Amino acid sequence: MIVTTTENVIGYRVVQVKGQVFGVVVRSRGLAGNIMAALRSIIGGEITEYTSLLEEARRHAIDRMVKNANIAGANAVVMMRFDSSEMGQTMSEIVAYGTAVVVEKI
Where in the chain are the domains? Predict the structure, then answer.
């Protein structure tokens, strides 16, 4: 599956548009991770507990989006984007979305 943030894939042409696809993940850091993150926020700098949580959530969201694109019969997703939001004070929602298409080599 080709996944790109651009409208076109170099060397390919879009022959069919299948529609919008997305993958959603809602994650929460455990109590210990929240305590460590709170302590790090006092000191300053990168909060690695949240960085790794968001990296993993983004990968998981992309995997779900690709699965939905496969179900739709696509072999590529173009114009892929991420969106995120907070749910309460302990949860993050990550959405990967794009347009599922069928491409063929030029």
Answer: 2-28+56-105
